[in-house]
């Protein structure tokens, strides 16, 4: 992401919606998951950067997961 960052959207590809969990420190206060499974972080800041785990399961067989690294670039808002 470059420029003025006001919102961050992470998307997991797949047939089911994603379940996101942040790994490590920081916070995802105010974050939510859209109907399409994308993680939405309004008013994103550099503190939101880090590793996130996207998990998907449909109840049949083992679920899938993918580790996503989010790096936030852009102007800092105060």
Structural domain tally: 1
Biggest sheet: strand arrangement: 1-4-3
The class by helix and strand makeup works out as mainly beta
| Number of DSSP-assigned strands | 6
Question: What's the number of helices?
Answer: 0
How far is it from the N-terminal to the C-terminal residue, by CA?
Answer: 19 Å
Mean pLDDT: 68
Element pattern in H and E: EEEEEE
What is the C-alpha radius of gyration, as a whole number of Å?
A: 13 Å
The major pleated sheet works out as: 3 strands, antiparallel
Low-confidence stretches: 1-7, 22-27
Helical residue percent? under 10%
What percent strand?
Answer: 35-45%
Shape: elongated
Polypeptide structure, described:
- There is one protein chain.
- By secondary structure, the protein is an all-beta fold.
- The protein has one domain (about 5-70).
- The protein is about 0% helix and about 35% strand.
- It has strands at about 5-10, 20-25, 30-35, 40, 50-55, 65-70.
- The strands form two sheets. Strands 1-4-3 form a three-stranded antiparallel β-sheet, with no helix packed on it. Strands 2-5-6 form a three-stranded antiparallel β-sheet, with no helix packed on it.
- β3 and β4 (about 40) form a beta hairpin.
- It starts with 6 loop residues before the first strand and ends in an 8-residue tail after the last strand.
- Mean pLDDT is about 70; it is low at about 1-5 and about 20-25.
- It holds the Pfam family ig.
Question: How are the secondary structure elements laid out?
Answer:
Layout: E1 7-10, E2 19-23, E3 32-33, E4 39-42, E5 50-56, E6 64-70
Antiparallel strand pairs: 1-4, 2-5, 3-4, 5-6
